[in-house]
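Regression check, magnesium ion case 367:
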Amino acid sequence: MSESSYQITLLPGDGIGPEVVAEGVKVLKAVGQRFGLSFELREALLGGIAIDTTGTALPDETVRLCQEADAVLLGAVGGPKWDDPQAKVRPEQGLLGIRKALGLYANLRPVTIHPKLLGASPLKAERLQGVDLLVVRELTGGIYFGEKGRTGTGADESAFDVCTYSVAEIERVVRAAGEWARGRRRKLTSVDKANVLETSRLWRSTTAQVIRDEFPDITLETMLVDACAMHLLRRPADFDVIVTENMFGDILTDEASMLAGSMGLLPSASLGASTPGRSTRMGLYEPIHGSAPDIAGRGLANPLATILSVALLLRYSLGLDEAAQVVERAVEQVIEAGTVTADIADPGEQVCSTIEVGDAVTEAIVS
Ligand code: IPM
Ligand code: MG
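Current build output:
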């Protein structure tokens, strides 16, 4: 394989997933054209569509195609069709399964504000001045992956979800967060619920030790998750890097997306340990939003979160920082020009379709 050819596996998934991934693919192709790179794209099944086709949410073939790739671009999974609480297989198992199978323990969710979109956020514009934060969400442990089940019957029936974290799991994600903080404003907020949860007490003490021993240049603050939910609205610009466990990170990043104005704007990168000697670093890139079945197939979905995920893919997995910047600048131009979907359009402003927004970004890249 020549140096400038990359293998990307696409997991469009369900709902609006295929629509937004199609726009991401257009953007990749435009980047290829502009920089003389070639992307070998292979599509695989994940989530509800995989259940319908193969009976499982994560076919072995999908895992293999992801393992062989330099990076993975994912849309979203799930929908009412597969929501039966009695169902043995669920689309979300595919998503959690692929994150785990690829060892992607650090999920980066950056939040920045575009000046033209200040009005799209429910927060007052002055609160949003200077917001530039990065949530590092632990992605392969905690309550998402613990034993779960039911016991008893009738009124005695009960359900459980076990939350477990090991020192090693906490250390590696805190190290990742420490490294990211080093490249930024060197402030790390570790979020937990140490006043109640044993896993959080281990999280807190382990984090303190890693930062004290290995990152003396980083300022560490610890915050309870309920207080963090409040401070994200009260003084969002004070945060630099937030590191937290799987479920808290899930919840806080939906909240944080409202700073930017829409779930449809937030990209994410899921990374594992880098492989020594490899020039690319395996990662999975996906918008933080879900499959939005209510708007699927109607051209309403905002493709920018996926397109910005493509930028992160170029930067973190392929080391193509210049290409990533070109994509990010193209997105800025398109927002500036008002070529946006309904979720971020000003009242009375023209509303564009998913495809029109993707086309505008593509044009800005190649021109
Ligand atoms: C996310 C999503 C997923 C998660 C769901 C779809 C399982 O909400 O990526 O934030 O909880 O991780
Ligand atoms: Mg979520």
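Comparison notes: The pocket of magnesium ion (ligand 2) is lined by residues 250, 254 (CB under 6 Å). The chain is about 40% helix and 20% strand. No diff flagged against the previous build.
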